[in-house]
Amino acid sequence: MISILIAMVVTLAISAILGLGLALADKFLKVQEDPRIEEVTKMLPGANCGGCGYPGCSGFASAIVKGESPTLNPCKVSKQEAKDGIKKYLKETPGPDGTTLDIK
User: Fold this and answer.
1) What pLDDT sits at residue 46?
2) What was the pLDDT predicted at 28?
3) Which residue among 17, 50, 81, 82 has the highest number of C-beta atoms inside a 10 angstrom radius?
4) The pTM is what?
C-alpha cells in the first residue's frame, strides 16, 4: 500500500513540475505574429492557387506584410479593387513595431 502512495506522490510531483514548465514556456516562448497577416489573407481571393509563387494566400499575405513581396502583382486572381484595399489597409494600419507599409 505504501508503494502505491509513493508512486502517486511521485507522479503528482512530476506532473506539477512539467505543468509549471509548460506554463513558463507558454509565457516566455510565445511567438507573436503580426495581426495584419490575417487581415490581408481575408482580403485576398482565397483561391490558394500558388500562382504567385507562395504556398497559398496566407503565404502570400505573410510575404506582403513581412516585406518579402514589394508588390501585389504576383496575385493574378485578385481584382484591382481588392489590391487597392490591401494597399490602403497596410498604409493606414501600423504593425507591432509601429511602422506602416507602402506597397506598390
Assistant:
1) 87
2) 93
3) 82
4) 0.70
